[in-house]
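If it is no trouble, might I ask you for a protein's amino acid sequence along with its backbone structure tokens?
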Amino acid sequence: MNWRKWIHNILISIDQFANTIAGGDPDETISSRAGKARRKGRWWARALCWGLNVIDPGHCEDSVDETEGGDQVFDD
């Protein structure tokens, strides 16, 4: 069994679940949603991406998935 892949998949599912709880698309990660919202100048996305960039430079922009977000409940 590939434990690293299993842990990675679990973390992605938690990320997507949290995004869904926050009114986002269930197939999209918080980082992807934040990257798109940051482009629109949303304060919460700028703050989140700033924090993530400390750990992983360019994280939000690299995480943006333009094919996801269509099932989002709340507009960013």
Q: What stands out?
A: DSSP finds four helices and no strands in the chain.
